[in-house]
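Narrative summary of target 7.
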Amino acid sequence: MRRLCGFITGTVLMTVLWSGCGSTSNNDQLVMQFISFDNTGIIQEDSVGETSAVVDNVQEKPCSGTQDNELFTDTLINAVFLNNEASDITLDHVVIDVGPTSGSVVPPHAIGRTLPGGSCSNISGQHCASDADCLAVSGACVHSDTTVSDILLFSTDEKTRIRSGTYPVNITFFGFDANRSFQTSTVYSVTFRDLQNCTTTGGGVTPTAPLGSTPTATRTPTATRTPTAMSTPTA
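Modeled conformation, tokenized:
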């Protein structure tokens, strides 16, 4: 989705977009903004949706009546972000906290993807935070959503160490540009249980489409929107 930022010129936001300190702050989510999760193109044994997931944490070895093991895959998801500053941001890694009752600690997972900053519609290659940076009355500063695909939530080894149950999982993304670092967080409901994906003739069955909520439809571009701090989804 494309966003025009002609009216995102408030003093607080502009200070955040161009500041050069090294640590994170409460304004991070105004700059490196998490939009939503998405399951488009994800084919795996687990089910991931926009607000929740169901994850298989027990692999049958072998499946009953066969010599094959149950198909057992890493748990992947896509995430959509919006970079509201001029500079590109490197989305570096993600920290996933399943909570103390899960019985396990998930290590950080590397990402290493770029979230492009704003660009002028009338000047090729010109980065911008607002329309004023485009040096023309007809120019507009455009910020676009970026989908980061196949982010690792849980490896096959990690999810077998998590107790069965439903947990409000805290997911925090970390990024940086040339001058400072950023972080933005969300809460994602995950149910861990034995999905028993064995079949009577083979090791498992790969879903033809992800279960859970359907992928987020492409939203109609809006001319102006002042980013606000992300609300915490209901677990």
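Helices lie at 11-18, 28-31, 156-160.
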